[in-house]
Amino acid sequence: MWLGTLPNLKVLSLRSNQLHGAIRTSRIKNFPELRIIDLSYNAFTENLPTSLFQQLKSMRTIDQTLKEPTYIGDRYYQDSVTLATKGRNLELVQILTVYTAIDLSSNRFEGHIPSIMGDLIALRVLNLSHNRLQGHIPNSLGNLSVVESLDLSFNQLSGVIPQQLAFLTSLAFLNLSNNHLQGCIPQGPQFQTFENNSYEGNNGLRGFPLSEGCGKDRVSETNNTVSSLDDQESTSEFLNDFWNAFLMGYGSVLCIGLSIIYFMISSGNLKWLARIIEELEHRIIMQRRKKHQG
Asked: What highest taxon heads this organism's lineage (predicted)?
């Protein structure tokens, strides 16, 4: 394969062609400079090319020495490329040297997501959506510390969402929709920003931001329900004692009841006062009826 003879290749964009079949990488020896791979909207099949990922040296390290932005190209020529990132197509008129992306979406890839992808720690964008990938989301994706956009939607992935993803502090876009995921959605700073559409189409998922509670949320809901029932029971007992005291004419208890009514008015809780008045009216009417019948 002639691509294996281009050791200085930095950007490989073959999107929206009619390429098909498996990606054979037996002749690919090294891609030390390759930073962007876009093979989306083709008809590639079989497993994801694990041996290709092993050759992507520039994606396996993060250059900590850069103090100012640098771009691919020189003063005579500059690269530009269009990539799908964060749910939309983005045209990069200039490509930062630190920008790394893999887009293999809208193909027919099968099998599992290779755990070795977690070694590509410099990745900013990873899009494997609209394929036929199966199995679990590998925990190793939690190593992608600078990833900003992660799209695994419209596959056949199962199992739980790895808790390790909750520690991806640069993650601004996440789409795991339309898979077979289940269990609790991890909680973390970035996960608090994602909405329902990041998870829709996974009937087994629960937790924030979906409606079903999960873990501590479910315990909290249970405690709130019990507390509400206790409040209702206490309210009922209070009203019953109050009316008995009022109708029997116990002056001291009546003063306490009036003090409580004053407190309710001053605190703005007028619903309780309305209930008391309605109940009082009802009991007075019942007392009058009994007297007339007697």
From this structure: Eukaryota
pLDDT digits (tens, 9 = 90+) for 21-65: 998 776 556 678 888 899 999 999 999 988 888 888 889 988 766
- In the chain, the DSSP E strands lie at 11-13, 20-21, 36-38, 43-47, 81-85, 88-92, 101-103, 108-110, 125-127, 134-135, 149-151, 156-159, 173-175, 180-184, 204-206
Tokens 């690269």 appear where? Answer: 79
Work out whether the CA dihedral 172, 177, 183, 184 comes out positive or negative.
positive
φ, ψ for residue 215, nearest 5 deg = 60, -120
Predicted confidence band at 150 (pLDDT cuts at 50, 70, 90)?
very high
Q: Which structure tokens are listed for 167?
A: 């520690």
1 has pLDDT over 70: no
